[in-house]
């Protein structure tokens, strides 16, 4: 019978549980835990090593721009119950670009909890302010219509867990924790653009789940988590080979 052990509770339950399950399976297969015994991992901060990985990811992402397309049918902003129309050159989608995702940093201490044949690195991170730009967007509300760019900024917070065993090292789990400090701007210097800017900002900020940028936020989180997992594993492999 296998006994579950507890890692230091630094991460939220969804990430932590996956790491614990993986650890139990790894230890159980190795047969190093006797019946009715609980293995207690040794945990320590690895902030310096994590910061080196974050710096490398930021350098690789510096100046990068990603293009995203959002299907039009998913965008239904309203202003006090009245529809606000957002259209681009594509009749069925809004085109956007995402930039400034090279400011990745730690939200808290990153910790490595280990057993003789297993270790789990858990950390919480933030990136931003990330910038989403929707160029040449025709915005209309009642009799007002104007063409300009919708610019949105936000900070993304996430948690990442990497598992390292005797045979492999891999990204175990990741999660987008939140979209914070969300701001909208409709860039058009005409008087109609100024009024529509106020309306668009209110309408978009009232949308559930920040759906205008939700898919792009999930994709960026996934990409950063994969980069962190790959680079952490490469860093640890280099240390072991010294």
Structural class: alpha+beta
- Tell me the total number of β-strands: 11
**Mean model confidence by pLDDT:** 77
Gyration radius from CA atoms, angstroms: 23 Å
CATH fold description: Bactericidal permeability-increasing protein, domain 1
Low-confidence stretches: 1-14, 21-37
Number of helices: 4
Query: End-to-end distance, in Å?
Result: 38 Å
* Percent of residues in β-strands: 35-45%
What is the name of the CATH class? Answer: Alpha Beta
Describe the sheet with the most strands.
9 strands, antiparallel
- Give helix and strand order, one letter per element, not per position: HEHEEEEEEEEEEHH
CATH-level-2 architecture: Super Roll
Percent helix among the residues? 25-40%
What general outline do the C-alpha atoms trace? Answer: elongated
Number of domains: 1
Layout of strands and helices, then pairs:
Layout: H1 13-30, E1 42-45, H2 47-61, E2 65-71, E3 78-79, E4 82-83, E5 85-87, E6 93-99, E7 105-106, E8 111-115, E9 118-141, E10 144-165, E11 169-187, H3 191-205, H4 214-241
Antiparallel strand pairs: 1-8, 2-6, 3-4, 5-9, 6-9, 7-9, 8-9, 9-10, 10-11
Main attributes of the structure:
31% helix; alpha+beta; Bactericidal permeability-increasing protein, domain 1; 4 helices; 242 residues
Summarize the structure.
It contains 4 helices and 11 strands.
